[in-house]
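debug: dumping io for the single-chain case to check the tokenizer round-trip. Nothing else runs in this session.
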Amino acid sequence: MPRRTFLAGLAASCAALLLPAHAQTEFPRQIIKIVVPYGAGSGPDVVARVVGEKIGAAYKQPVVVENKVGASGMIGSEAVARSPADGHTLLLAAPSNTIAAVSGRKFSFDPVRDFAPVGMVVTLSPILVTAADSPWKNLKELIAAAKAQPGKLTIASGGVGNSQHLAAEMLNAAAGMDLLHVPFKSTSEIVTALVNKSVDVSFVDPSAIPMVKSGRIRALAVGPGIRSKALPDVPTVAEAGVPGFNYVSWYGFMVPARTPHAVIASLNRELQKALADPDVQAKLVGAAMEPRAGSPEVFGEFIEQDMARWKKVIATGRIRFE
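debug: decoded output
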């Protein structure tokens, strides 16, 4: 099946935003499915359900969320890539897609080029956490302990090749330490392992914030260059002793590459309306996520930039994905 780049053809998608309403009347014709390549209750799952409910109400069609977990998001991604290109099956994409596309790994599909962008949904602040009773009260103490015991302390991620994994490698390189990477399948599994002290630290998504606030796990730092509104007293990694470190995550909707431009335009319109809704905004912000409405073209350009960023991280860190 021929592939297309995101930037080629996106102008046509945006022009379709101006099509008259009667051009959209054939969509949707059935239930809309959002495939989330991560577990129920995770950050991506929350986003899909909150936004999907509003889109379904607008279309007067049920929107169902299907969790297809595994292979760092690639099982769910492949399922969508193989779906009919009619707009009724969407992927909630994440950095795992852009990372996979530049990782050098072989897939039976292209994690980026076999999709067309619908729109960015949110950005979010990953949190570096440890057990509530761990011996490290802050990041500097963790770094000192890791340098004293190279390769002994562990850092968990949601799978080999996802953004948590690469962020762990970025942190190792920037701080001059050697945390051992341990892959899991979901944030809930990681948090359980942290509480049980099966692993020492991890970058987790904001779905873990209630456990931070309840005292079950301890936040050492947040990944981005600015503090989280949900955890204002928690320093950034840069503030906590690793200058220049910046790790921000995101989620967005994509559909199979051959989906008609008019259908993409329709989905984008409803997505932007959903993200402008005060109730949706309150739920997303309450989950420590920032709504990021925009056109398919803007999202496509962002994905190109994200691929370039991760490609540099992989090359600089000589990261292997076996």
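debug: round-trip ok. The CA atoms of residues 45 and 68 lie 11 Å apart.
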